[in-house]
């Protein structure tokens, strides 16, 4: 029953017996003055707001799950409660009724046990670390790993191509199909018509799916690449402003 006592209440901080206030609030047993004061506090207190919402969710969970999972038992408990009220009313003085709450504690124990058994299981199902179904089979890992080394037919046909006779390109690193780890040092030398080539170039790194991963503007005949790459087959290109003049490849190993 709701308390009709409208005494003034004020919370300057979280009440020490806040569990009592939470229960009274959720059971609608606070007076209007107490409810106003309590709501003014918990709507502005992150800790109380989160805890009260959690209690509300647990209470709703118990009510919903109990009604759906134990309908006959709940109905039996309600009937026992009704019989207990009727019996107590007959044996007590007029105007005073005592309710036997033994059924309530029994139901609460059942709900608590159900909660403890089911909630951790649901949390584990949502956790990809504990969910065995979320771990790909070993064969899948091996297939994906092998796919990273599958050559690109188009780029393989262009490796070592010299696209114009006027360019004489010699590459010292990485050599074609060279296995590299960590930092990759690109070094080359270009002669054009018997003279050194000093114009800016674009160095492009692609994976074996011909996807452009990185491109850099280079003005010298060397470049140091420090970004981490997953194991696999990679291709690299040297381009002028309007054409590709070299295609090479390298392998990133574990």
Average pLDDT value? Answer: 75
Number of helices: 7
Strand content is: 15-25%
Q: Any idea what the shape is?
A: elongated
Describe the main β-sheet briefly: 5 strands, mixed
Helical residue percent band: 40-55%
Lateral strand order in the biggest sheet: 2-9-8-5-6
Note the topology:
Layout: H1 18-26, H2 32-42, H3 46-69, H4 71-91, H5 102-126, H6 138-147, H7 153-156, E1 167-173, E2 178-180, E3 184-192, E4 195-196, E5 201-207, E6 212-218, E7 222-225, E8 232-239, E9 244-252
Parallel strand pairs: 2-9
Antiparallel strand pairs: 1-3, 3-4, 3-7, 5-6, 5-8, 8-9
Would you write up a description of this structure?
The chain is an alpha+beta fold and 254 residues long. Helix content is 41%, strand content 22%. The protein is built from seven helices and nine strands. The protein has helices at 18-26, 32-42, 46-69, 71-91, 102-126, 138-147, 153-156, and strands spanning 167-173, 178-180, 184-192, 195-196, 201-207, 212-218, 222-225, 232-239, 244-252. Strands 2-9-8-5-6 form a five-stranded mixed beta sheet, with helices on one face. Strands 1, 3, 4 and 7 form a four-stranded antiparallel beta sheet that branches. A hairpin with a 2-residue loop joins strand 3 and strand 4 (195-196). The longest helix is centred in the middle third of the chain and has 25 residues, at 102-126. It is elongated, with a radius of gyration of 38 Å. It starts with 17 loop residues before the first helix and ends with a strand. The relative contact order is 0.08. Residues 95-100 have low confidence and may be disordered.
């Amino acid at each position: 029953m709701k308390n009709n006592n409208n005494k003034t209440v004020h919370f300057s901080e979280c009440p020490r017996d806040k569990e009592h206030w939470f229960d009274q609030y959720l059971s609608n047993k606070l007076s209007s003055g107490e409810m106003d004061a309590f709501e003014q506090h918990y709507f502005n207190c992150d800790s109380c707001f989160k805890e009260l919402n959690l209690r509300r969710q647990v209470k709703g969970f118990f009510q919903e799950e109990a009604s759906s999972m134990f309908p006959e038992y709940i109905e039996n408990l309600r009937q026992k409660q009704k019989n207990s009220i009727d019996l107590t009313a007959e044996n007590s003085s007029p105007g005073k009724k005592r309710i036997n709450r033994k059924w309530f504690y029994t139901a609460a124990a059942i709900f608590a046990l159900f909660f403890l058994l089911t909630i951790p299981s649901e949390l584990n199902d949502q956790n990809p670390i504990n969910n065995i179904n979320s771990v790909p089979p070993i064969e899948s890992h091996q297939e994906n790993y092998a796919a990273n080394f599958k050559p690109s037919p188009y780029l393989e046909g262009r490796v070592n191509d010299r696209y114009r006779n006027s360019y004489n390109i010699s590459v010292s690193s990485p050599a074609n199909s060279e296995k590299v780890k960590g930092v990759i040092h690109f070094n080359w030398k270009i002669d054009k018509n018997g003279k050194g080539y000093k114009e800016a170039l674009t160095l492009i790194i692609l994976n074996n799916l011909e996807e452009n991963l990185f491109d850099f503007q280079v003005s010298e005949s060397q470049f140091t690449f420090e970004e981490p790459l997953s194991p696999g087959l990679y291709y690299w290109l040297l381009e002028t402003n309007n054409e590709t003049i070299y295609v090479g490849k390298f392998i990133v190993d574990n």
